[in-house]
Write a structure and sequence with these properties.
Elements (H helix, E strand, L loop, with lengths): L4 H4 L1 H10 L11 E11 L16 E13 L2 E14 L2 E6 L5 E5 L4 E16 L2 E12 L2 E12 L6 E14 L14 E17 L2 E14 L7 E4 L4 E4 L5 E15 L4 E12 L4 E13 L3 E12 L27 E14 L2 E13 L16 E12 L1
Antiparallel strand pairs: 1-2, 1-20, 2-3, 3-6, 4-5, 6-7, 7-8, 8-9, 9-10, 10-11, 11-14, 12-13, 14-15, 15-16, 16-17, 17-18, 18-19, 19-20
Length: 391
């Protein structure tokens, strides 16, 4: 069994976003970039499984990016090729002493994914606009997405407005690794995201960005590769979640340039709340240090904490009256710490760089007390290497 496409590459996407620059609307040169990223989850300890260590996911990603000016506009093309193998948490059951035991998928999954996205950014009067279209395909998953964003700075003002909307249609057809024959053979879902924000120039070296976002998922939102254990039946049933999930986010980003040190402080905070009763806090602090003119070192720390979904449980004594059930660790209460280090070097028109991230999730890191920790929580190490050239 394997996780669905929506969640399985979050770490790689975050590392990729940190290493690949977003194309400027007024780029004056052609830019090419290549990024390799490797994601490796720590094995599930024997103490949490069925008496032996279990290998978890390994993902290798290759991302190619081309950015080019087209008159006053800027076009960007992204191509991502990804391969994944390993096993994932299936369901949780208590042993004779009540200790939670994580049951893993019985066989290693191996698959590949291809993702392509095109973006065109251009000025419309004094408003900067960007539109994008993307397509993703793997063995059991296909998605089409599109979006539009804008940014406007009123003349003579020290603030700007931005906003955007995005839509994705996902088609899921579980194949190898389906949790059981009683799981769906095909399903789809729709996702809508909108946001609006205001940026303030607080001084010659300080900028504050604030935004509000809303997201709505509709359709099949369960995971066909996971189960939930029912103790009274001594059996497990398919993961079953509500068919709709709406959420709100509020975020703030502070950027401050420390001129005497040639460095910049980035501090980000994000609050999340959804109708599944999951609330989450994310704090990200990074220090971008430039030295010897051509080097940049960026250490950063990220903290995350969330509450559990209202229907989540490690296992169930009886089937819930509403039929909902999920023991997915991503819906459990937990906290996480992530330490990252990124290093870049400019050599003429070339730029070389790399990054490393160490992530650990634990109930001990949660803001609120957690009675029972999900044994499937993840630890991982992610590495990246970047090569870029400007013509």
């Amino acid at each position: 069994m394997k996780p669905t496409r929506m969640n399985k590459t979050t770490a790689l996407q975050a590392l990729t976003s940190a290493a690949l620059a977003i194309p400027g609307l007024a780029a004056a040169e052609v830019q090419t970039e290549y990024l390799y990223a490797h994601y490796q989850e720590a094995d599930l300890p024997a103490s949490k499984g069925v008496g032996q260590s279990s290998e978890r996911y390994e993902i290798n990603s290759h991302r190619f990016r081309l950015t080019s000016p087209l008159g006053e506009a800027t076009a960007a093309l992204n191509l991502t090729l990804e391969s994944m193998s390993g096993a994932s948490p299936w369901y949780i059951m208590p042993d004779a002493n009540g200790k939670l035991t994580q049951i893993m998928s019985g066989a290693s999954i191996s698959e590949e994914r291809a993702d392509v996205e095109a973006t065109l950014a251009y000025p419309v009067g004094d408003v900067q606009v960007a539109v994008s279209l993307g397509y993703s395909k793997e063995d059991d998953y296909e998605a089409v997405n599109g979006g539009a964003e804008f940014e406007h700075t009123p003349e003579g003002q020290a603030y700007s407005f931005s906003g955007g909307i995005g839509y994705s249609y996902d088609r899921l057809e579980p194949t190898v690794g389906r949790s059981s024959l009683d799981v769906i053979r095909k399903a789809d879902r729709d996702s809508l995201n909108v946001y609006g924000g205001v940026s303030f120039i607080l001084g010659p070296q300080t900028v504050l960005q604030t935004s509000l976002g809303y997201a709505l998922g509709d359709g099949y939102l369960s995971d066909p590769y996971k189960r939930a254990y029912i103790q009274s039946q001594t059996d497990h049933i398919p993961d079953n979640r509500p068919g709709e999930r709406s959420s709100w986010t509020a975020s703030a980003r502070l950027r401050h340039y420390v001129a005497p040190l040639g460095a910049a402080l980035h501090a980000d905070y994000r609050y999340y709340d959804d109708e599944w009763e999951v609330t989450a806090h994310t704090l990200d602090i990074a220090w971008h240090q430039t030295f010897a003119d051509t080097w940049r070192l960026t250490p950063s720390l990220r903290y995350y904490s969330q509450s559990q979904a209202y229907f989540y449980a490690p296992f169930y004594q009886n089937v819930r009256a509403d039929g909902l059930a999920s023991s997915d660790y991503r819906l459990s209460p937990y906290g996480a710490l992530s330490l990252r280090l990124d290093l870049r070097k400019a050599i003429g028109a070339w730029e070389l760089g790399g990054g490393i991230e160490r992530y650990e999730a634990s109930a001990d890191y949660a803001l609120e007390s957690v009675k029972v920790e999900n044994p499937g929580l993840v630890e991982y190490l992610a590495l990246s290497f970047k090569l870029a050239y400007r013509f």
